[in-house]
Amino acid sequence: MSDAGEKVGPVVAAAHLAAGAMPALSEIEFAMTLMHHSFQRWMVRCMAAAGVSGLQPVAVHLLHAVAHRGREKTLSELCMMFNIEDTHVVTYAINKLAALDLVKSSRRGKEKTVKATEKGVEACRRYHEVREALLVDSMKRLNLDEKALSGIAATMRSISGQYDQAARSATIL
To answer: How far apart (Å, rounded) are the C-alpha atoms in residues 140 and 161?
Structure first.
């Protein structure tokens, strides 16, 4: 137990990583891990509350992306959008969504395309309603600066590029 005036070290899951040249990066990694798991749990439960149970988080992401702006998307576009290397993950999720009649597949040349069905668009609309009622209302009460949140999101996207570059470099070690 530390004294009230004593500073506690960074909040991390791996002190040996935080002992390096950039402890704050370990704090970010731990925070991202917690947020990632919380967000995935939220998406699955929100979609279930919206009337569609049994989806994995990637399927929920894909359904929203496919419904986005009402235009069909190719599998390669979806993989790129979510930075998913394994196309089988996307194909499996799309097949599950199609089996639930939330999306339909077709072809554009040699490439498979996916478009949300009316049932899929309706599921996204209900998800939006649940999200507004249960998440957005409570987040608004935190009085967070939305411009600052947008800045954090931009920083997170930039950091993801650094992880991608480091991952590419790690493959040749």
So the answer is: 30
